[in-house]
Specification:
The chain contains 14 helices and 2 strands, in the order H-E-H-H-H-H-E-H-H-H-H-H-H-H-H-H. The protein is globular. The chain starts with a helix and ends in a 14-residue tail after the last helix.
């Protein structure tokens, strides 16, 4: 059928309606219980032994879903004004990937909450997320982004519960998150008349992903004993493979604002724990794209990871190549041929344009 002006106008109208609906529904897509989570440290309860003559001390229990979600909410609220490219709604904040992932873990029972708001220390997912919630929060407090009431974290097992302990337990993780937040406080940090994607990539996504990747690298050995507590071999494999995949996502510097993360989540995240009788792409209660994503993820042998990281380092070495690398990640589960095309373009641009000279995407030795 020939495209007429009327047809084009009709299609544009439909597209605008879809975009409008997506924008209006994004509030409904916030992590579960987001509106109930604390918005400031003063929203947490006082210590039971607090007296009026003492400095107020709030108790934060990161093993309660609402309390841990509150750490993220406070981070979002305090950092959005420090990111000039963010909208007033907070949805453009690149830290939104953290609570969105956490909400998915809760909804899919990967925190072993079993219908409650408790988080089990037996959960490998919850244990890994501890370091991606508590550490950024403590680092933000350390550098002065969060200036509120005194608080104390409830201690469980061997998880660090204050800045000193965490710096001893995961020193590089604390250092990189402190660097990320310190940058935000600098008055002239990456100032520009317009904040285009290139500046966001270099000044914000680069340091944020550097901290994120190192967090996982240092956390995984500390929680290795909890892998066997996952309910199936398939879920165990998925958890470890997912942690490895984050390396590739981080090196491509995907923008982890709320809308972007929701797109990935809807397409590729299984909405339940995986069972031993799950055989992707033939899991009937999972969507076709989730099936395809799991099939691709499980086809990659763990021993391939180091060599793939070397190749990916080249394919993501500058801003231009990273744009194609992001397309690889977005399409690989659906069309391998298209993914190869984008990967080839990424390699070509890694030679055509000068690679970055800074070290924000380098990994630490494991």
């Amino acid at each position: 059928m020939k495209m007429t002006s009327a047809n084009l106008l009709f299609l544009l109208t439909i597209l605008l309606m879809i975009l409008s609906l997506n924008a209006s529904n994004i509030n409904e897509r916030l992590p579960t219980f987001w509106n109930e989570a604390p918005s400031s440290i003063s929203d947490y309860p006082f210590a039971s032994n607090y007296s009026s003559v003492q400095t107020p001390l709030r108790i934060i229990n990161p093993w309660l879903y609402i309390d841990r979600l509150g750490l993220y909410k406070i981070l979002i609220l305090t950092t959005t004004p420090l990111m000039p490219f963010c909208s007033s709604s907070n949805f453009s904040n690149i830290l939104f990937g953290l609570p969105t992932q956490f909400g998915w873990q809760y909804d899919s029972n990967r925190l072993f909450s079993n219908g409650t708001k408790q988080i089990s220390t037996d959960s490998w997912w919850a244990s890994a997320n501890y370091y991606l919630s508590v550490i950024p929060f403590l680092a933000a407090v350390d550098v002065g982004i969060i200036r509120q009431d005194s608080f104390e974290l409830v201690r469980r097992e061997d998880f660090c519960a204050n800045s000193t302990e965490c710096f001893h337990q995961v020193p590089e993780t604390m250092t990189r998150w402190r660097t990320f937040f310190s940058n935000l406080l600098q008055a002239n940090y990456c100032r520009s008349n317009s904040f285009d994607d290139r500046i966001i990539d270099r000044c914000y996504l680069g340091p944020m992903w550097s901290a994120h990747r190192v967090t996982i690298q240092q956390a995984l050995p500390l929680i290795a004993s909890k892998v066997s507590l996952l309910p199936s071999i398939t879920e165990q494999r998925f958890g470890i493979d997912w942690a490895n995949l984050v390396d590739f996502i981080g090196m491509a510097r995907e923008n982890t604002n709320l809308s972007n993360v929701l797109i990935y989540q809807d397409q590729f995240f299984p909405k339940r724990l995986l069972r031993n009788d799950d055989h992707p792409p033939n899991c009937p209660d999972l969507s076709p794209t989730v099936n395809q994503g799991l099939q691709l993820l499980f086809s990659i042998k763990p021993e391939w990871h180091p060599e793939m990281i070397k190749l990916w380092t080249r394919a993501t070495c500058n801003y231009e190549s990273r744009q194609d690398a992001q397309h690889v990640l977005q399409i690989a589960a659906i069309s391998k041929a298209t993914a190869v095309k984008y990967y080839t373009e990424a390699i070509f641009k890694s030679h055509l344009y000068k690679c970055d000279q800074n070290d924000v995407f380098k990994t630490i030795k494991k």
